[in-house]
Amino acid sequence: MTGKARFIGLLENHLAGSASPEEYIELMKLIKSGDYDDLLKAKIDDLMLHNNLSDDLSDDRAQELSDRILNSEMHTAKLIPAMHPAKKYRRWYVVAAAAVIVVLVFLGIKVALPAKNESHDRMAKNDKKTLQPAVQKYIRLQDGSTVLLNEGSHLEYPEVFAATTREVTLSGEGYFDIRHDAVRPFIVHTGNVSTTVLGTAFNIKAYPGQKEVTVTVTRGKVKVSTDKRIIGVITPNESIAVNRTNESYRQEKVNAADVVEWKKQYLVLDDISLEDAIILIDNKYHVNTSFSNEALKQCRISATFVNNENLEQVLSVVTSVVDAGYTIQPNDQVIISGEGCK
Questions:
Q1: Distance (Å, rounded) from C-alpha 30 to C-alpha 2?
Q2: Alpha carbons 140 and 42: distance in angstroms, whole number
Q3: Residue 326 sits in which domain range?
Q4: Structural domain contains residue 177
Q5: Which helix (H) or strand (E) holds 37?
């Protein structure tokens, strides 16, 4: 089998979800070699322009997504390790192309696309994005705040927040970690109930059909109100549940960790060191990981796993991003090896 045929076969297997961890590592090495840039770019163009990502994806929206991915140098720099100096001036889309392999499968970019419907058209006119109910998604907002959405949830949010306030609309359940801004309060709208903060972390559960909107704080302080009145202010390990119909409510002490238990099944590595990422991985998969080279600990990584990936899938992605390798030994011991990052 020729090198090109092997590369195409590995790529097709990976996009189909049938590649083994070993095949994934081999594919990433071929991508990083720079020898298959044209093939990779052609495959991305084919995915974007022939509706392979979504049955209802129009040509215009496919091109919009393609442009967004291929111009995302700031984000892909976190996913792809620094290039060798000899390859420093490879075309910008090559870096993005390599990142797409991670993005397509592990960041679930397909389900983040809004459906082509009246709701989306209306939101587009208001300069907002809408994430349709699908699998859970991780969102980084324009101000650096982040939102983790549970299944069957979606968030409406502007491309750029206003000068005096930051407002979003949630349907379903989401965990918010809000960047502090003393000038611009952050407001989450859930029907007639609003949650206002300056900078904090909290969970909101407000699925359509539920009688109550429940707000739980894990860090900081939030104010819960309706269109008519202020309901109350809560701090960590407190919650307020507001009846949507008559606006009655109950405020109580809770174990916030239990409330946000749902998000533990997902793994979010948001521009953190590999050392910190491994702590999260060890806790989730109950393993003990060590580094053969201390320099690896300072490598930076951004990746989001929302499809119940197993340990080997996670390690394959994480180590490929920082150009390292791993071995799994008896008694749940993992060793990560590589040259490290400067």
A1: 13
A2: 29
A3: 266-338
A4: yes
A5: helix 37-49
Number of folded domains that form the chain? 3
For residue 325, give the CATH number of its domain: 3.55.50.30
195 and 275 inside one domain = no
Question: Is the four-CA dihedral 341, 335, 279, 108 of positive or negative sign?
Answer: positive
Instruction: Count CB atoms within 10 A of the CB of residue 69.
Output: 21
211-214 long-range CB contacts below 8 Å, 24 or more apart? 211/243, 211/244, 211/245, 212/241, 212/242, 212/243, 212/244, 213/241, 213/242, 213/244, 214/239, 214/240, 214/241, 214/242
Q: How many CA atoms lie within 13 A of 44 on its CB side?
A: 26
Question: Which residues have C-beta within 8 Å of that of residue 62, sequence separation ≥ 6?
Answer: 48, 49, 51, 53
What's 21's DSSP letter? Answer: H
**CA-CA distance, 137 to 263, in Å (whole number)?**
11
Encode pLDDT of 10-31 as tens digits: 877 776 666 676 777 787 778 7
Quote the pTM value: 0.60
Residue 141 lies in a domain: yes
